Amino acid sequence: MKKNRIIAAALLAATSALAACSSGQQAGTASNPSGNAVASNCTNTIPKKNLPVVTMWGWYPNMQLVVDNFNKQNGEVQVCWTNVGQGSDEYDKFQTAISAGTGAPDVIMIEMDRIPTFQIQKSLVDIKQYGYDRVKADYSEGAWKDVSVGQAVYGVPVDGGPMAMIYRKDLFEKYDIKPPKTWDEYEQAAQKMKDAGGPHFGDFAANVSALTMALQIQKGASPFAYDPAQPEKVGVKLNDQGSKDVLDYWARLAKKGLVGTQDQFTPEYISGVINGKYATYISAAWAPGYLTGAGVGKGEDTGKFAVAPLPQWDPANPVQVNWGGSAFSVTSQAKNPELAAKVAYSLYADKESLTDGWTNQIIFPLNLKALNSPEFVNLKVAFFDGQQANKEVYVPAANAYKGMTYSPFGQYYFDALTKQVSALIEGSVTGAQAADRLQEDVVKYAKEQGFTVQ
């Protein structure tokens, strides 16, 4: 009974998951509403019909090119790709297939923070035995940790989101401000800009819980501890002093009017970015692609943005953090797990696909063959007016990132954090109170689902 409640918690987290990337075409028919993973449903054309086929779900915008590259180059297996939607659309269909015991693909594209949610349901395969040693050196320690649960590996890293501070060069020049290297300097610069009649220095939003969590981790927080060897136990520590300090910091800036509190990823927020309402944008390496697609950095907005390393809490002990990232995982319904793992390891790992991904700002690559290539490192990024942003900011941040441990009920935690940050913004709680309430809420939820909280 206890185990069933834990699985139910994972199901709830999966079915309520939010999207993080742009959606694509939907798969499935009236007779096959969940887009069951059978080879006849391929979006792509399989050129080598005499080879075994591995089915795959994924939503990257250039997936057609990636799959075609793989099938052209591979003489052992072919990929049948279907886009059943992205984020929650895909996860809902995967959850339906898990419950039914059929209908899942052999390989699935999944955001890294969702891996424990599906792993606890035994719906993903540990691929460490299927060629991990062959590709281990192609990715950083932090990238592998993000797709691992305990010592087991449940995905192959593809893209990530090392964090930095995007800023408006025109506003920094107008108000004589240099990029802050610490969060104390960030607050001082924000006050200077406000005193001079300038706009908000940044934004503290309730709807970006993953960002808030990352900044707390940068301050020393370790929100969760989870090991599949003891699946009924979970460590939850959301009200440590570092977490409280981060919430109090941003609440103070918001109360003083130094930063806005507009929800991000909205037309209103993007309009503010375009019109110079915010001097900085704390985000990840995928942000330039997202902002460009949203209309930022075009027309009169061209050439006004630059990027600097993420400010640090303790410059003597810098900590790099990550926001977002996806991987390819092998599902427990895979007909041939070893063959499926070969696809997961090799898909989006060839030079042509990786180059297309980063040149078109679709992914920030985690494969070190791309991440550390001279072409990528020395790229003069158009969005940043020709700045070598990868060399100066993003690549060092990615290489220094150590990874983190996600929880098997991550979406509930994100929703609960959003609720507390909303209250913090409204002024009904302090940062310390918000952290304590979050701890109480998430611990109660974990216990209700059958976990022993440590």
Automatic annotation (TrEMBL):
Q: Does the keyword Signal apply?
A: yes
What start and end residues bound the annotated signal peptide? 1-19
What does the organism's lineage look like at the top? Bacteria, Bacillati, Actinomycetota, Actinomycetes, Streptosporangiales
> What protein am I looking at?
Multiple sugar transport system substrate-binding protein
What are the transmembrane regions? Answer: none
Identify the keywords attached in UniProt to this record, alphabetized: Signal, Sugar transport, Transport
Database matches in Pfam families: SBP_bac_8 (PF13416)
What is the species listed in this Swiss-Prot or TrEMBL entry? Nonomuraea angiospora
